[in-house]
Amino acid sequence: MSVVRPKKHLGQHFLRDQNIARKIVDSLDVSGTPDVLEIGPGMGVLTRYLIQNPQVHLTLIEIDQESVEYLNNRFPGGDVRILSGDFLKLSPESLFPGKFSVIGNFPYNISSQIFFRILENRERVVQVVGMIQKEVADRFSAGHGNKTYGILSVLLQAFYDIEYLFTVSEQVFVPPPRVKSAVIRLRRNGRESLGCDEGLFFKVVKAGFNQRRKVLGNALKPLGLEVPPKFAGLRAEQLSVDQFIELTRDLRRP
By the number of CB atoms within 10 A of the CB, which of 60, 139, 172, 191 ranks highest? Predict the structure, then answer.
């Protein structure tokens, strides 16, 4: 069987350390949600451990056709559903009747896009275990007041509890990336509603961080709304998720 080579244009670095692979898979709790989607399985280094759990109903989605052929040869017999496609264009309702979890060694160049897509499907995606660039993992899990705190920190933390699980050396990949990686876990929190205009909340968070050096009274001017005095002199990184919700709720037309 021919070896599937990494595709540099996909931003994918293939994990070769089996201990790390098993540790990632063991971080996923499937006791209540057996449907699992693995994004970008490559040559199946995580897949081989996922299928060992009889509780897991596993679906793979892989954009590279050469890798899809490899996976079909490696995991025959129908125990795994293997799809050729792009997760960013996926309609989860066409694959899963209910809620599901996501796992993967996510390509660095689209990791933020993957998490925005997960946010769009947050009522279905109950858990995510993913390996991403360490710098991005730090950002996602950062609390307010931290310089790495940003747009996805707030948006993800509004709907998920985020854990930074462990750091992964660049030497366990083929080819080795130039940066360290990290594994994070997201679990859907109990927040059913933000209690404010959700679309406006997203706009406020993005506008605040897109001009993060400005105080919110100035950064939010393009929205045409009046910022309450208690928030006007603060910068976006100083606000917690709950404070962003309060700010959104209290914005008024001048």
Answer: 60
